[in-house]
Amino acid sequence: GAILVAECRDPVKGETFYRPLGGAIEFGETSAEALVREMREELDEEIKALEYLGTLENIFTFDGAAGHEIVQVYDARFTDPTVYGRGVLAGYEADAGVEEFTAMWMPVESFEGDDARIVYPNGLLELLRSRAA
Fold first, then answer.
1. Least confident of 19-23, 26-30, 128-132
2. Are 44 and 37 in contact (CB under 8 A)?
């Protein structure tokens, strides 16, 4: 009933939003291999039992610049079960120097309803709902 997300902020829009962890696929690796590597790099955690859920195409504006990404969405399990009991996890993004971020478990319903928090990529909730049905 919860997903692991990072809280982000768009300084131009003044918008706080959430997105699942992940990153770019490097040449020669599959999307599943990239996810395993990204969890190791960003959280220093191992994952297993990856299940491909679907692909989302996300066209967006962030910090005043247009962006376009193809997102491969997976469900996975952490090999260390204590990860699920932690409310927040310290993360590190090394793309632009070392930037710290906080990952947190958020109930899926916190992204639904009138006072819903924003989650990207677009279509993620619908994909998760279709898999739960």
1. 128-132
2. no
